[in-house]
Automatic annotation (TrEMBL):
Alphabetic keyword roster: Acyltransferase, Transferase
Protein name per its UniProtKB record: GNAT family N-acetyltransferase
Keyword Lyase tagged: no
Pfam families found in the cross-reference section: Acetyltransf_1
Annotated GO MF terms: acyltransferase activity, transferring groups other than amino-acyl groups
């Protein structure tokens, strides 16, 4: 059974999973195309981080970064490799979407890469209604990155 908790990023299991996430982003992205937030970037007032736990084990992390214009960005989504394909990411993404709606936000966006390492996440986002769209915030479009958006209000 999984549970979701706000995470202040002080526990070693959460920090290890964040380090794994950052290493994966760098290993699967061209130089200069990694926009994943590091620990300090996730500890700002505009970012809320959650961890998914199975008992005491941190099996997933994800964050919501408010952009200040009624929209927010999904950040740092990562499932621990030992728990892939068990519904961790779907549970967490659904939680983030619900939280964004509860905050009255109108759009949820994300930036991600291209290639085989990103396909499982892209499939999840699209299954949840995210659609390809324009660059947002300070991002610049490139041949590698892509932008997905979910309208939170009809």
């Amino acid at each position: 059974m999984f549970s979701i908790h706000p995470d202040d990023l002080t526990s070693e299991p959460t920090r290890r999973l964040l380090a794994l996430h950052l290493a994966g982003m760098h290993a699967n992205s061209p130089p200069g195309h990694v926009f994943a937030l590091d620990l300090s970037g996730l500890q700002t007032p505009d970012v809320t981080v959650w961890s998914v736990r199975a008992g005491d084990d941190v099996v997933g992390i994800g964050a919501l970064k408010e952009l200040g214009d009624g929209s927010a960005e999904v950040k740092s989504m990562r499932t621990h490799p030992d728990h892939l394909r068990r519904g961790v990411a779907a549970l967490l993404l659904d939680h983030i979407v619900r939280e964004a709606r509860a905050r009255g936000l109108t759009r949820l966006s994300l930036e991600t890469g291209s290639g085989p390492a990103f396909e499982p996440a892209l499939a999840l986002y699209r299954k949840r209604g995210f659609v390809n769209g324009e660059a947002f915030a300070d991002y610049q479009a490139s041949a590698f990155n892509q932008f997905l958006h979910l309208a939170l209000r009809d």
